[in-house]
Sequence to fold (253 residues):
Amino acid sequence: MITGYGHFAQLADSLQWDEADIDFSADREAWPQLTVAENENILGLLAGFLVAENAVSTQLGAYQLVASDPSMKKVFQAQIRDEVRHARFFDLVAAEVVGVPGDDRDARRDALRAYVDAELVDLFEERLPATAQRLADTGEGLTAAVGLYHMVIEGVVLVAGQHAMLDALECLSVPLPGVRRGMELVLRDERWHIGFGSRIVQAADVGVDEVESMLEQGETAAKVWGNLITTEAIETAMRQHRRRLKAAGIKFW
Ligand SMILES: [Fe+2]
Ligand SMILES: [Fe+2]
Fold:
């Protein structure tokens, strides 16, 4: 069994950033100049990230609680710190760049919820919390929960959305440099989160059935973005997913 997750905590400390340091002044000026299609696409993806990051930043506490290895516990804590920052970053974009009204983050997320597919909301606000709750209640199933959360949700659903957002930002008629900078930093954080989850799954030596389940869950979950991401983006994310499962030492064909 591979133990010791301390290097992920060190990596997390070395990659800290602050959303308040990002300059959104050019983005604020550019936003009203976007075309209707550009506006709809960016707003939809932003709404998805607001729902997702607000949800995951509160659900990971169950994982930290259940982890018995102290070094793993510490890394979950570092990940929660990242996810809370991601939620703040997307909210800042909503408030400062888009001008979404609302007194707080929850109000702005609620105002944007209608821009995403009900499937995405259901995944992040019903199905994932149920998994986290089961984990907290029973104290069992951490590997399967990490497989679902880190490898499927972060590794496929969120990465596919993040790449779709970066591609969309790349092609805009007027650039949004602050949003782009923040997205790159979010993606950098997510890479180590996925690496951390892969390491847990690798150490647990999971069976063929669990791998099949992670593959199936990936295929299904990636579709929650609806029309906001392309089939190619899903296929790319699934290819990476298979590669990660393989790299984790799992034989599945
Ligand atoms: Fe995140
Ligand atoms: Fe993450």
